[in-house]
Structure formats: C-alpha cells, structure tokens
Design a protein that fits this description.
15% strand; 32% helix; globular; single chain; alpha/beta
Length: 434
C-alpha cells in the first residue's frame, strides 16, 4: 500500500467519523495498515497496558504485528520495573497514556471494579480494547461499555480466551451442529459468590496509590490479602471488588456454554438458587479459601432456563459443561473434550488437527486491522458476565427470578433490579453520556 493511498484512506476515515459525530482520531490505528509479512516497529499496532499485575503480565505475548509501547499501574514501582523490562513508557495515570498517539489499543487487566472506566474512556479516546474477564462488576457497567464500544466503533475483545482454543472450539461446534441431538440439560461447576471482609489495616506498599486502587468503592484500610488477587482470600473473592469466583472463573464455563448452545446473542430467562436467601459471610481476619465449589452457602447450586427450554445447572461438572442431548453426551473440560459415544469427539479432533486456530490475542490484533468483530466481542462478554451476575443476585434474593434478555431487567421486581448497579464513589462513576 503506497503512502499516498494510506494518507487518503485515513483522511476519508477521519472525515467520515467527523460527519457521524464520533470523537475518534481515525478508525484504523497507525500500525494496522502495513502489508509486509514481517512488519517493522513503526508498522505494528501499538498496545498499552492498564494494570500490569499477575494477569496483565501474562497477556504480553503479542503477535509480531503488535508491540508494547506503554504500561500503566497505580503501583508506581510495578509500572516502572516492568517498563524497564519491556523497554516502554510507564504511567501511574492511565488517562495520560490514552492521550499518547502511539497507543493504538489497550489491554485492561485491572481488578474487576476497575474494568468499566478505563474501557469506556479508551473507546472515547479512539483506542481498541482487550478487557479481561469478567467484563464488569455490574450489569449496568456492561450496558455502558457496550454503548461506548459501538458508538466509537471500537474493536473490543473480552478475555474469555478458552473459546479460542482448538479443543473447546471443537466441542462447542459438535454441540451446536446437533451431533448429540437436541440438548436438554447442561451440567457445570458451581463457583462461590463473593464474601465480605473487615481486615485490620496494614502499612500501604511503597509506591501504591491505595485510594485510587479502591476506585469506585469506599476506601478500606490496606491489606495484602485484599490487594493480591487470590491470596487469603484476595480481592477476587470480595464483594466490593468482584462478583466472586462465579464471575472470576465460572464465566469461562458460561462463555463456552453460550457458544455451544448458539446463545451468544441472548441470556437465560429464569434463574434460581437452592437453599433460600444467602447471607453474607464476613471474615474478620485473612483465611485461606480455595477456588472450587464447596464453600457452603456461598457456592450453592444454581439453575438457569433458556427460552427454548434448555436448562443450565451449576452444581457439579466440568468447567465447560456436560451437554446432555437426545443422542449422547459431550463433556467440555478445561482444555479437554469427551463424548458418549466416544467416536463423536475422536473423529472431530482428528479433522480439527489439520485446521490451525489463532490465539485470542492474535484474533484481536487481526480484527483491529480488518475492523471485524473479534471472537469474544464486547456484547458476548457482556452477556457472559450478566449470566454470572444473575446467579449472584438469585443467591442474594433467595427466590426464582424472571429475566428479560432484551430489556435487561427483572420484570416487576424492584428488589432484584436494585442489584443491577452499585453506588459508585466520586469521581469514579460511570459517565452520564458516553
């Protein structure tokens, strides 16, 4: 592609965006239009990272046509240390990173309560987004994120990477194509809802802005067993910052169930939990907690029903679900698939071995260049998170709930609808108008 063609193409896109009233610099990022097989540094998609703890660091294996140009974290020492290793710029305020012209796209790998604002503001800044799962802390956050991604025409990938693995894709394709006949029931693991903690305060880590880390939540005294993701128990299991393991890990299984059933476009219409209303468990001191489904009332069984009659039960089973159909079963585990009769999977895996699949990050980068929707588009990620949020709400309310997937409300149920959003501390609220 010639330089003059590239300029005219960008000018056309900028003018089109302006005519549509979109506040974006241009729709194709600076490095996305190179056609060389081995792109140079200036031809790669420039990626910035917002949150570079355990998960953010794991997501840095970018394909050759992308490069890390910046990292941002509220822990100054963490950002600066990683920037030296990756030879890029560090920030403690991600908003300044969003102003950088060489940042074409961002990876949001913060704790869950910090997913919404960076994702929305990145869309507003004209950056494409890869946001870790679960997409949101509340249903309302997901609605605004989807609105922002669509308004600013962003390529937005949700980090449910299991749907991009070969085994999981094969299993989902077999279910969806009717190899076991009409699916009647899906059995999947149940994961616990979040707990509440009242830990004593400890000195804040040097270089960490704890008040900003707390973000939309009311600040509490610093404690390592809140700050570290899965410690004792860590923020992922605590209600102010997460939906618990049902959103942190269970969302992977929900995503595969949605894909296998061909339900990416919708959600179940009913949900209920066993055992009545669940009371909050409060921990006054750190305590080791596992990731499984045996945490008493916090991990009680859930049942969902889709409009077509398929029942999804979260009680016991593999992460991706056991799909029970008229003519057999398919079990989708963590990186594995089985079937009854066994030849269903055996033949499919043999055929799939000759068809290489692209990674989740590679799919995102390719879609940034093509402007197509990625494998786990923002609306898919939103619905996955909604299903997990519905499970938490059913446990908290303690009765069967009806859900309207189109309007995204519990019809005529003020008590349940009150859980669709949470109070947000200033100045960290959702924007009134994206």
């Amino acid at each position: 592609m010639t330089g003059s063609h590239r300029l005219s193409r960008r000018r056309f896109l900028r003018q089109s965006a302006a005519a549509a009233g979109l506040a974006v610099p241009y729709l194709i990022p600076s490095g996305a239009m190179a056609s060389a097989e081995t792109p140079g540094a200036n031809d790669r998609v420039g990626v910035g990272y917002i949150g570079v703890g355990r998960r953010g660091s794991q997501l840095m294996h970018l394909p050759p046509d992308a490069q890390i140009v910046a990292v941002a974290d509220v822990d100054r020492n963490r950002a600066e240390t990683l920037a030296k290793v990756r030879k890029c710029r560090p920030y403690t305020d991600y908003r300044k990173m969003l102003d950088a012209k060489d940042v074409d796209a961002v990876v949001v790998a913060t704790p869950d309560h910090w997913h919404a604002l960076p994702s929305i503001q990145a869309c507003q800044a004209g950056k494409d987004v890869y946001c870790e799962k679960p997409l949101t802390l509340t249903v309302r956050e997901g609605q605004v994120i989807v609105q922002a991604a669509r308004k600013y025409e962003r390529v937005f990938q949700t980090g449910t990477q299991r749907r991009s693995s070969a085994e999981h894709q094969v299993g989902c394709e077999l279910v969806r194509s009717g190899r076991i006949g009409k699916v009647e029931t899906v059995l999947m693991s149940a994961f616990p809802s979040p707990w509440v903690c009242r830990f004593p305060g400890k000195p804040v880590r040097e270089g960490l802005d704890w008040d900003v880390w707390c973000g939309q939540t009311e600040p509490v005294p610093f404690h390592d067993d809140i700050y570290i993701q899965r410690s004792r128990p860590g923020w992922l299991s605590l209600r102010p910052y997460s939906g618990g393991e049902i959103t942190g890990n269970g969302v992977h299984g929900v995503d595969l169930v949605q894909l296998a059933l061909g339900m990416d476009h919708t959600c179940p219409v009913e949900v209920w939990a066993e055992g009545g209303k669940m009371e909050d468990l409060v921990y006054e001191a750190p305590e080791d907690r596992g990731r499984g489904n045996a945490h008493g009332s916090q991990g009680r069984a859930l049942t969902y029903r889709y409009a077509n009659g398929v029942t999804l039960k979260l009680a016991s089973g593999p992460l991706g679900g056991t799909f029970v159909g008229e003519n057999g079963k398919i079990e989708i585990g963590s990186g594995s698939i089985k079937s009854d009769p066994p030849e269903i999977v055996k033949d499919a895996l043999k055929e799939a071995s000759s068809n290489p699949r692209v990674s989740h990050l590679q799919n995102w980068i390719e879609c940034i260049k093509s402007r197509e929707k990625p494998a786990a588009d923002v609306e898919i990620g939103h619905r996955d998170a909604v299903i997990c949020h519905l499970g938490n709400i059913a446990r908290w309310v303690g009765r069967k709930l009806r859900w309207d997937p189109e309007k995204e409300v519990f019809p005529d149920d003020d008590e349940a609808n009150a859980y669709l959003e949470r109070p947000m501390r200033k100045p960290y609220q959702l924007p009134d108008n994206v």
